[in-house]
Amino acid sequence: MNKILIKNAYIINEGKEKTGDVLITNQRIEKISNSISLKHPNLKIIDAAGLYLLPGIIDDQVHFRDPGLTHKATINSESKAAVAGGITSFMDMPNTIPNTLTQKLLEEKYTLASQTSLANYSFFMGINKNNLEEALKTNTETICGITDDGLYFNNDEGIMANYPDFLEQLFARTNTLVALHSEDEAIIKKNTETYKKIYGDDIPFKFHPEIRSEEACLTATKRVLEIAKKHNNRLHLFHISTLAEANLFNNTLPIREKRITAEACIHHLWFTVKDYNRSGAKIKWNPAIKTVKDKNGLLTALLNNKLDIIATDHAPHTIEEKNGNYFQALSGGPLVQHALPVMLELYYKGKITLEKIVEKMSHNVAEIYRIKDRGYIREGYYADLVLVDLNNQWKVSSENILYKCKWSPFENYLFQSKIVKTFVNGNLVYDNGIFNETKKGERLKFEKER
């Protein structure tokens, strides 16, 4: 029986900060106390004086590109970057090759992760026009949900938010959490043609938020919300990018009682339209990074609980795939290694508390998805934990970027806080730059009713 005793940490959990000790036995937290004294032949003691102990971050939206797109990333490479960034669990999207549109293909991804992932994992079942019956077979206790994110719904035409008749069918029949990307394709096409007439293929990247506009986001989100409310479905909306959308959501209900939830992403909370001139395609995401007003509004919406969680939408491409003109440069970028450091920068700027970061990146993700025994520092829960030094500056460079694509929109940025150690299921998998890959992460499990 292996035991780890973390001593003298500043513990951030459930809205409070306290100094104390945490005893880990095998995979789980055995005891939390002001002071724990113990003698055991297999005891490892970690003095965490001056360090902050947080629940491991749970990221509900990543594209780890495995299988089929492994020139960009693999489950192994990106899970290593994730644990180095304090992320102990992730949920992966179905736009791999082949698209994850059958239960068999879905289980093949779980098998792959069991062999290669350093973090805990779950995989969304993909849905399109042709696999409704297959998607409805999804097991709510072993799979995080159903999504269209990253998939074409109908050949090469758009996403599910643009097909209200199909959404009606899905919402009328499913008891599974449905997570959607909401942008209106007709508005985007119209805007694209407008800018193409002016600039041809060389549209400046600063017009990306004019093409994938507030109107495109708001129109689709309103449409989806109207249908979901009619059926009282368990709906989660990915990567809300505008203040106008954030204001559509309810902040009067406790998180467990919400039938509709939504998130903000790291890049929308940090960058604005002003950054396109410097960063160009490196910050080209869908939905687009938008105005200063939107960035500030999203953070306010998180603080007042209109938005419920923070995710990454980690979507790596090779640097070659990010080059070229507006139409050639692919949308998306890598974020898992730097997501928690970014939020800690916002803490340093006085924009958000540590307690709120933990709530939005750990507690609430566990509540939204009904993840069993994770997301908190509680006795009996899995020991998914991260130790952070809030006063340890480091600069992002090509030497310390862990993504397989080897670039980051944060390259050359000086962070104030450093991830020191990350525990996954009680195993110290990341320790000051050193990885222990002998034990892999585990499949997340969920409550049946969501």
Write the layout of secondary structure elements.
Elements (H helix, E strand, L loop, with lengths): L2 E11 L2 E10 L2 E6 L9 E5 L4 E4 L1 E6 L12 H10 L2 E6 L10 H14 L3 E4 L1 E2 L5 H4 L10 E2 L16 H10 L4 E3 L4 H15 L8 H4 L2 H18 L3 E3 L5 H4 L13 E6 H5 L5 H4 L12 H12 L5 E3 L27 H10 L5 H16 L15 E5 L4 E2 L18 E2 L2 E7 L2 E5 L2 E2 L15
Helix pairs in contact: 4-7
Description of the molecule:
By secondary structure, the chain is of the alpha/beta class. It folds into two domains: 3-53 and 379-392 and 415-435, Urease, subunit C, domain 1, CATH 2.30.40.10; 56-369, TIM Barrel (Alpha-Beta Barrel), CATH 3.20.20. The chain is 28% helix and 21% strand. The protein contains 13 helices and 20 strands. Strands 1, 2, 3, 4, 5, 15, 18, 19 and 20 form a nine-stranded mixed sheet that branches. The chain has a six-stranded parallel sheet with strand order 9-10-11-12-13-14. The longest helix has 18 residues, at 214-231. The two termini are 35 Å apart. The model has no long low-confidence stretch (mean pLDDT 97).
Short description:
This protein is α/β, with parallel strands linked by helices.
